[in-house]
UniProtKB/TrEMBL annotation:
Pfam families, per database record: AbrB
Protein's UniProt name: AbrB family transcriptional regulator
Listed GO biological process terms: regulation of gene expression
Superkingdom of origin: Bacteria
PANTHER family given in the database record: REGULATOR ABRB-RELATED
Transmembrane segments: 6-32, 53-70, 82-103, 138-160, 180-200, 234-254, 266-286, 323-343
Species this chain originates from: Candidatus Salinicoccus stercoripullorum
GO cellular component: membrane
Keywords noted in UniProt: Membrane, Transmembrane, Transmembrane helix
Any coiled-coil regions, as ranges: none
Amino acid sequence: MKYLRLLTLFTAAIILSWMLQTAGMILPWLFGAMVATVIFQRLTRRDTGFKKWMGDIGIFIIGIEIGSTFTKETIIDMQEDVLNIVLLTLMVILLSLILAKFFMKMTGCTYETAVLATTPGALSQMILMAEEEKRADLLLVTLTQMSRIVLVVILVPFIASVFSSGAPGIPDDAEPDITSVLVPEMFLLAAGAVMLTFVLKLLRFPVPVMIAPMVGVLVWNISTDHTFALNVEFMYLAQVLFGIRIGIQISSLVSRLNRRMVVSMLAQNILLILGTFVIVIIFILFTEHNFNDLFLSAAPGGIGQIIIVAVEMGANIAMISSYHIFRIFFILLIVAPVINIILSRNRRRRREDGEET
């Protein structure tokens, strides 16, 4: 019976995702799986049979896709604009940390929740860290990060279109699908990524299931000429698996949602997007880049959504990819570990205070 419920859930998620894709929605497979799961949980109120390792497969695939965008060409692009990339990334992250204080006052949430909810462009990483942090409100972190995706999809194209000077198009230098360039050595790449995942888990590294394949593919791209992008079907699968995982989390916690939380989430995310707009207005005075390219480079969303918007706006895909790839690595390799250390110290300090009292 449990397997039948799991099969029904997957079927419902795929059908709804396909319907949303047909309707022209961005990220339909992620949102479709989330909505289908929440509805399924509300109707059945039974265990879906969905296991954590299934969600990890989706995260692993996303890690591969992120790594595949990091080629020799993007590294060269980043070297030519490295100062701008670093400064703009730091300014956006600093803005998010400032808004975290505002978010705490509006919601009355913990410091851990505010930081994990407001860090931009790191939805899956922050959700995974929220799962491990007892003082973090998983519902608030998840819905704040997810609502940002919706607002980015709605607001960023509108703002960017006002300043767009290019024509919509598809990048002509896209990497070939992995199935068209498959070579035997790629099986070693897969095995190495799996082994690295276990090593990082032993080292308690943040989000090892995503970082391991990302690093593996990055090294592969730099050391070989067999660069690739994942077939779109793999990304559909990853979005469905991750969407179901998030949907289960939301459905188990949504009863705690109230008007104050909704208003706080909307206000925080809108302020983050508008604050980014102001940063770019100031930043553009000191660079030769146009506003549209800079704004899409700084926009607080995931690389997938932003690149889709960039293609529609006829923007500089290579430049925008470089900025977002750097921010992904900066958040994963620096911000996330620093947040993890801070939260660990806070946990240790609370335990010590408890022992003293």
